[in-house]
Amino acid sequence: GAAAEARFISSAKGKGLFATKNIRKGETVFVERPVVSSQFLWNALYNYRACDHCLRALETAEENAQRLLGKSSLVLPHPEQCSIRKDLHQQCPRCQVTYCSAECRQAALEQYHQVLCLGPSRDDPTHPLNKLQEAWRNMHYPPETSSIMLMARMVATVKQAKDKEWWIKAFSQFCSKTANEEEEIVHKLLGDKFKGQLELLRLLFTEALYDERLSRWFTPEGFRSLFALVGTNGQGIGTSSLSQWVHACDALDLPMLQREELDAFIDQLYKDIEKESGEFLNCEGSGLYVLQSCCNHSCIPNAETSFPDNNFLLHLTALEDIEAGEEICISYLDCCQRERSRHSRNKILRENYLFTCSCPKCLAQADDADVTSDEEEEGEGETDDAELEDEMTDV
Predict the structure, then answer these.
(1) Under 8 Å CB-to-CB from 386, ≥6 apart: which residues?
(2) Checking phi first, is residue 232 left (phi over 0); if not, alpha (psi -120 to 50) or beta?
């Protein structure tokens, strides 16, 4: 059976995820596919080519490295370690979006793509869906933390479903917030002009997708809650054929000299890419995961999420031994943020997730002065929108 289950803790904390048996450090607690997911719009626009359904990177590792370096002459050693199978890629015959396989094309078509397929209007800027995406891109610049298309896929899924109630129920189990909390989250996603922008998005969303049975989602309150649901529960997804290739190379059994050469080559490659493309290495998107969204935060987490399959399948892995009955927690903060003072950590958590942390580390530091150190003050500027979503997208 499953190694973990969701349980209701309290009305203040909502749900949590608990181990149903002893789990050893390093073990996979579960692998989960999202109810719905979508690549970020700027990420797609900048040619980070990913499967339109599962976000699997579509470039070979070499093409990936060439693009990130801006250098088409780069040759990667050990090309046989690249896992990309171009012979399996397929396109939607009507609108030409690309999938990594026939299975993904079929899955997308069955779940939401019939409603969202642009057909020959793919490049028509006046098409309602294109107007919606353009408006979103103009409000939500990189680093991206969410996508209006995640919400569009939710609507399309319900529209296409035979059992609409089942899906509406599936979406309603994601933690929803009170109106003033929703307001804060939406504000965070859209910035200062959020009321006007939200209304514009709602009108475009309605024009593109309105459905009688989902009329509540299109009202100002319903649309705001949908937005807040995606803002609080969306889990970042990152995929990369280059990192897949690197992992495969790391596992090769090589003579020492060759091993040292290969490691030096890879280290240099990443340094050069960072100069050229900065931190934007992955195909990135976000998804809604039923079990993962039940995981509460701790500043000393006993589990972490990753995407080792180079697609949207989320792996939750134990960082420590976890006993049956113990709560499984992940960190909503990245490593650098976790090292900061309790005050700084909670400032980020309050702004982005609307709670104050009371994990053992925070309780132990409760008597520390509530001021951030000087070095921390300088770093304060770095943590804005990027934190909105769990930044655990590194693969």
Answers:
(1) 143, 145
(2) alpha
Counting the structural domains of the chain, the total is 2
The CATH number for 10's domain is 2.170.270.10
pLDDT digits (tens, 9 = 90+) for 93-124: 999 999 999 999 999 999 999 999 999 999 99
Beta-bridge partners for 16: 7
Model pLDDT for residues 121-146, shown as the tens digit of each residue: 999 999 999 999 999 999 988 888 88
112 shares a domain with 29: no
Task: From 194, 210, 236, give the residue that closes a domain.
Answer: 236
Tokens of 270: 């990443």
Domain containing 319 equals 4-33+289-369
The rounded distance, in Å, linking the Cα atoms of 199 and 84 is 42
For residue 58, tell me if it sits in a domain. yes
182, with CB counted inside 10 A (0-12, 13-18, 19+), is: buried
Q: Are 324 and 19 in contact (CB under 8 A)?
A: yes
Q: What is the DSSP letter of 326?
A: P
